[in-house]
TrEMBL record:
One of its GO terms (molecular function) is NADPH binding. It is an enzyme of class 1 (oxidoreductase). This is 1-deoxy-D-xylulose 5-phosphate reductoisomerase. Its cofactor is Mg(2+); Mn(2+). The keyword Nucleotide-binding does not apply. SUPFAM superfamilies: 1-deoxy-D-xylulose-5-phosphate reductoisomerase, C-terminal domain, Glyceraldehyde-3-phosphate dehydrogenase-like, C-terminal domain, NAD(P)-binding Rossmann-fold domains. The keyword Chloroplast does not apply. It comes from Dysosmobacter welbionis. Residues 5-129 form the 1-deoxy-D-xylulose 5-phosphate reductoisomerase N-terminal domain.
Length: 381
């Protein structure tokens, strides 16, 4: 069980909920980081009194340092400072809750220090899954997923000593706010429409990814890396109620599922307490009052991002880094009101066609592919 944690991305949705869980469990906080939310990070620092606070925006970090002049917390600025937070010696667990490729290098740094990685940054495994998992093996670091789907699979695999016993992993997907719409209907949806997720409260980027189903595609790649399985052993089903968080089908026909209320504090708590389970103040799932549980196939024609992700997963190498970088850039443009909803899969597909994929890439190849994909999107937007 964790005793002291560092949180990369403390002011975002996962970071804030992690602090709620840390307070409930009585965990100490060694380091907190954010991008540029000075006011929220200042409030968190004053409450949890970490040794280190980081803002990757350097001007915001200077502002924070002035505000916290009366405290002992060290304040650093700039993206490189994330690495110091990731290797903070007091922390036994690093929660990687930043969004995007910025989480990759700090995660690798924490792995080298044999920290437990409570992984909420899916881009790390999507873009560099083989490197990350190999590094974890080499250094003896533990990776415990925080995403509700991967936490569910992680829990369903407890007691599975041989991965050959697995027939397939089944990731559940709410379907997002546009479930049941045709491709033409989806194309008319606005930013405000895309940000209305039916079940979960999340940051804007991941919420848009849920609307395009790219989030599920990224999770397919993440599952392949985490559990070292090929694409044909990872499938997706639509489950609108978000009660069954994912399932594992074993080769003898048994299917194990993890159920719970749609509350991210549950998988966060498990990542903190694993391998133990401790009492939670959360309202337990009431099977007698929850809605009927339904399952359906995803519509890959209406939501082409899922197919794009699966194609990148099949190709491997830097194809997944290209996919992710292009998607991040395209979603940013959509949130800024510069492109329409259907432009997201269009730009991702065009970037995938424009940027060649390299097999067995080194870290610098992955970072270069990410940058090339982003530029390809900007050139075509």
């Amino acid at each position: 069980m964790s005793k002291t944690i560092s949180i990369l991305g403390a002011t975002g949705s996962i970071g804030r909920q992690t602090l709620d869980v840390a307070e409930q469990l009585g965990l100490r906080v060694a380091a907190l980081t954010a991008h540029m939310d000075v006011e929220r990070l200042e409030a968190q620092v004053r409450k949890f009194r970490p040794r280190l606070a980081v803002l990757t925006d350097e001007a915001a970090a200077r502002d924070l340092a002035v505000r916290l002049a009366d405290m002992d917390t060290k304040v650093l600025g700039g993206p490189e400072a994330l690495l110091e937070a990731a290797v903070c010696p007091e922390a036994d667990t690093v929660v990687t809750a930043v969004v995007g490729m910025v989480g990759l290098r700090p995660t690798l740094a924490a792995i080298r220090e044999r920290k437990r990685i409570a992984l909420a940054n899916k881009e790390t495994l999507v873009c560099a899954g083989q490197l990350v998992m190999d590094a974890a093996d080499t250094h003896g670091a533990e990776i415990v997923p925080v995403d509700s789907e991967h936490s569910a699979i992680f829990q369903c695999l407890q007691g599975c000593a041989d991965r050959r016993e697995i027939r397939r992993l089944i990731l559940t997907c709410s379907g997002g706010p546009f479930y049941g719409m045709t491709y033409e209907e989806v194309g008319k949806m606005t930013k405000a429409d895309a940000l209305r997720h039916p079940n979960w409260t999340m940051g804007p980027k991941i919420t848009v990814d849920c609307a395009t189903l790219m989030n599920k595609g990224l999770e397919v790649i993440e599952a392949m890396r985490l559990y070292r399985l090929p694409l044909d052993q990872v499938s997706v089903v639509i489950h609108r109620q978000s009660i069954v968080h994912s399932l594992v089908e074993y080769r003898d026909g048994a299917v194990l599922a993890q159920l719970g209320t749609p509350d991210m504090r549950l998988p966060i708590r498990y990542a903190m307490t694993y391998p133990e389970r401790v009492e939670s103040p959360a309202e337990p799932l009431d099977l007698l009052s929850c809605p009927p549980l339904t399952f359906a196939q995803p519509d890959r024609d209406a939501f082409p991002c899922l197919q794009l992700a699966e194609a990148a997963a099949a190709q491997g190498g830097t194809a997944c880094a290209v996919l992710n970088g292009a998607n991040e850039e395209a979603v940013g443009l959509f949130l800024a009101g510069r492109i329409g909803f259907h432009d997201i899969p269009r730009l991702v597909a065009e970037a995938r066609a424009a940027v060649p994929a390299e097999q067995e890439p080194a870290l610098e190849d992955i970072l270069a592919a990410d940058q090339a994909a982003r530029q390809a999107v900007l050139d075509r937007a």
